[in-house]
Give the backbone structure.
Amino acid sequence: MRGVLGHFRELDGAVEAITELKTARLGDVTVFTPTPRHEFELAVAPPVSPVRRYMLFGGLAGCFFGYWIAIWSSNYWPLVVGGKAIGSWIPYTIFGFEMFVMIGALSTVAGLFIHARIPRLTMMVGYDPRFSHGDFGVWVECAPDRLSAAEALLRRHGAVEVRGER
Amino acid sequence: MTTIAFEPRRPNIATANVQLPAVQSYEQVDDEITATLRPTKAWFLMLMIAMSFLAIGVASWMYQIQQGLGVAGYNPPVMWGVYIITFVFWVGIGHAGTLISAILYLFRAGFRTTIYRCAEAMTVFAVMTAGLFPILHLGRPWKFFWLIPYPNWRLLWPQFKSPLVWDVFAITTYLTISTTFLFVGLIPDIAVLRDREKNPTRKAFLSFLSFGWRNTEREWRHFARAYLFLAAVSTPLVLSVHSVVSFDFAMALTPGWHTTIFPPYFVAGAIFSGVGMVFTIIIPIRKYFRLQHYVTLNHLDAAAKLALTTSLVVGCAYLVEFFIAWYGGVQAEQDYFWNRVFGQWWWAAWIMLTCNMILPLSLFSQKLRRNPAWLWILSIFINIGMWFERFVIVVPSLSHEFEPWQWTTYAPTWVDYAILLGSFGWFFMWFLLFVRQLPVIAISETKEIVPPRLRHAHRHTPADAEDFEPQTGRAH
């Protein structure tokens, strides 16, 4: 992996640089921002996050488990009361719902971790602590012959610091 | 070129689109919020007091285990007392956190931004406290795990039709989800702390907790989506948990309990008490840490309106209970409600009515809604009133059932009071430790409100105003 890191103090400079990098197709762009901004989302135009599917499938699995554990254990150890069903779906809806929420939410977090690629053991090339403080970063991963073009582009849009990393 | 404009707002109008005019930059947010992490003498003193209360509670519990539940003031048939009252009280306190962090997030209520972290932490610690009380209430607390369904040598499974087992599932789910919600929201803020930390041991610890978060656009995109879905599933969870707690009572035939109004009544009461506790905590914090320009009067005003609304709902529920008792024509029910307000338990009922119905009416005054001192005093009354609400639900019903020979009285003993005190010690100990270790105001979400630095100065025009989203300060 080889590329250049542009360090921006201003939001609009970083957004303009990303837009032009995408147009020029100089390489893969990674943006660092201390807080989520729609401007970056528009500039990067990423696909929709698939995390919602984890919620759906995790929730359905949880709901099934909630009903199953209650019905199965009622049949396994029946408490027979005259005229009453051994497995009763109305109160068991509580277990279905609670497990839907619990497994669904935990699956969503798992989806976040998988797609955001965390936990991460190393901070990787291109990270700078200033990006969690107040500044913006644009990391361009590109072929060696395009490094100088990327560097010039970043500087033109107001990067206060540009450095090559590998 | 991206252009962003910011429209000044009238400072004395509480609105969902809250801005922080005194906060100018991302760096200021980091500096001022992380300054709350420095330990002070007052913090140590408060922690000592909280731990002393906890020690009193633990010692009393040990005494109860040795002597038996008889020392706790139970008087058959009043076999639910202070422990169940306090359990419901703390579960209720825990509701405001998820309401503020999840439901208000879905409603895009901007005033939540600077108070939700405190409320979320309060939720987790309140539910942790609540979870202790059913165990304290058990004669043999070491057998609490019998309520958990797992294959065992006894070949016994919990009775899944019992509201007490519903409670176990509801509270466990609520604690898990509240903790997850709090922790997921904390990850970017822990990354901020990690990057500013000088101490290598603490830095390594924060690096571990932040999971190597790097603030990339990719991370934020999945984070925002996951947070949205967590908020979406937490919303019905908030409503369900206290409904399930209310089933503990409503499923019984006891006068005063067997009513369908209980679930909404309990949920409204829980939110009301939770907002009260948010005031109790956030008002001293904003003053002590000088965060008045983050938790502004507009925020307090908006939260006070929430307290007023839920107070009116709770007040309405109180009155409807009386109406149903009269209209239902059941003698035992009517006698019970008469006994509650004008008989044996009049003092508890009037404390409840005064604190929860009458005093909160003061919040119709904008002056009082914007007066932090009054809000704090009122929040103490709300806490007291809501504890007594649960007292009035639990004790008068059990002491005045159908048969006159069952009628009795109930008085908590010093053990009950000591364990109640210990629960406050336990709650505040965790909260104080949290305040010292992690930011009490969400750093990354607060930064969303703050205007970013721009390279190109921009003049505000009416056309820009249409493109401007005031809550977040973002251009569309």
